[in-house]
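Hi Prof. W.,

I finally got the YbjQ family protein prediction working! I wasn't sure whether to trim anything, so I left the full sequence exactly as given:
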Amino acid sequence: MGQFGVFLLLLTLGYVFGRMAESRHYRSIHKREALLRRVLVLPDKMPPIEFQQHNSTLVTGSVVISVDYFKTIAAALRGLVGGRVNAYESLLDRARREAILRMQEQARLKGASAVFNLKFETSRIGDNAGKALGSVEVLAYGTALIPQRHATA
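And this is what came out:
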């Protein structure tokens, strides 16, 4: 009974603290998305004609987010029956959005008005001896378009 109690305690703590951290991160994401709304981010390979005279530079945003204990257990249980792993979906959603925000912040600091050709790279880090996801890294990158009057050398 002692080991089961420890398991339930860890599961409960993982759920409570994981949800708190996730909620706090989503609040931060929503606030920064509103602030950076003026820096357009588009997956289009070629910018519209009005951006043809802009200077361009590569901008990136990278984030590593770890999986909490509850998400690991929930994913393992879901693995028994199959189906969507909602716990990991929210993890990837936060990671993608955070990576885009960091890329937008870099573009804004360079004076860019838009980022075109948005791409993502995702990788798994520290898979905990093959038993769990560990952490996920998401890299967002694209071409920042800087109006010539703001261009820096």
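The mean pLDDT is 86. Does that look reasonable to you?

Thanks,
D.
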